[in-house]
Amino acid sequence: MTVNMTKGQKISLSKADGGSLTAVRMGLGWQAAPRRGLFGSRTREIDLDASAVLFADKNPVDVVFFRHLTSDDGSVRHTGDNLVGGAGQGGDDESILVDLQRVPVHIDQIVFTVNSFTGQTFSEVQNAFCRLVDETNGQELARYTLTGGGSYTAQIMAKVQRGAGGWTMTAIGTPANGRTFQDLIPAIVPAL
C-alpha cells in the first residue's frame, strides 16, 4: 500500500511483518509542461537530474549522480541519466537504488534532490514525483508529488535517515536553485 506523503511527513521503513527493508529504489518522474505559443501547444525537453547525497553527522561524504553513478562503498547506485523525462504519472525516469544493509554505519542520512541541469524552472515541469519502492518485491511504499511548479530550478525532495528503530523516510519538498547537487548543499543543510 502506497503512502501519499505531504511535505514534512515521516514514515518508518519497517515492513508490515516487523522486518526491515533491505533495498529501496528512489524513483523520479516528470514531464515537460505544454506551453502555448503562436502555433498552438508545444513542449520543450526538460533535463532533470536525481542525486543522492550521503551524510555522516551532517557532513556530505559522498554523492551519487549522473557523473558518479555508484557511491564509493557501492551501497548506492544511480541507474543512468534521462535527458528528457516523460514518465510523469507512470514509471520512473531516473532511479537511485540503495542497499540499506550495505550503507556504512557512519552514514546516517541520504538526501535525494532533483535539479534542472539545463536551467529550466519547475514552472515548465508537470507531473513530477519521487517515490520509494521496496526493491525486493517492487511494491511502492511512498510517493511525494511535486505540486505548484515555481520559478526555482531544484528541489530537495526527501531523505532516508538511520535511527535507533531503523530507517525512516521524510518528504522534504523544499524548493531551491541550482544546476547541480553542489549548488544545493546550502539548501540541504537545514533539512538534516
UniProtKB/TrEMBL annotation:
This is TerD family protein. It comes from Actinacidiphila acididurans. Residues 1-179 form the TerD domain. It comes from the Bacteria.
